[in-house]
Amino acid sequence: MQLSSSAQDNKSKINELGVSISGSAFGIRYKSGNDKALLRLTLLSTSGSMNKQKTPSDSKSKSNDFGIGFNVGFEKRKSVSDNFYLYYGSDLINSFDRNKYENDSSASFNKHSSYSVGLGFILGFHYMVNSKINISSEIMPSIIYSNEKYSFDQSGNITESSYSGLDYGLNYNSINLTLSFNL
Fold this sequence. Notes:
By secondary structure, this protein is mainly β. The protein has strands at 13-22, 25-34, 37-54, 60-79, 84-103, 108-128, 133-139, 142-154, 157-169, 175-182. It has one domain: Porin (Beta Barrel), CATH 2.40.160.20.
């Protein structure tokens, strides 16, 4: 006589999609995992513009701007009650921004580009309003390395400069509020 048994992990699959607000920026956040640990993907502050201007004196100018922020990380949840969780984790923080302005009449241009990469440490809470809607809030102190380059041309006179530095701490962009929906 042979007996066999099998056990299955009873952790439920979680998929959440939400809108997050942090300082003056907003983004879209997706979380996937189980009730203990989740993968976090956040698309923040996507922006862009293209403008052209022509004046009565036939002066032409144009500008292009593009920016994007993208974070990826993990969070671990600890249940406090049936619908309330505390969580902690980390995010890899990435952003890129580029803008350029050209003026044909004065033969000048301005260019600026920057990128940042860093690590954020997350501490927050998650509340399940009902089976479909969630509210979460978190703080994320971070360490971020930034590199920026500037170029300015005034009638063939080119001036270039750069900046790089390490920023750390907790500021108004480090506080986040997210409204999410269970998929």
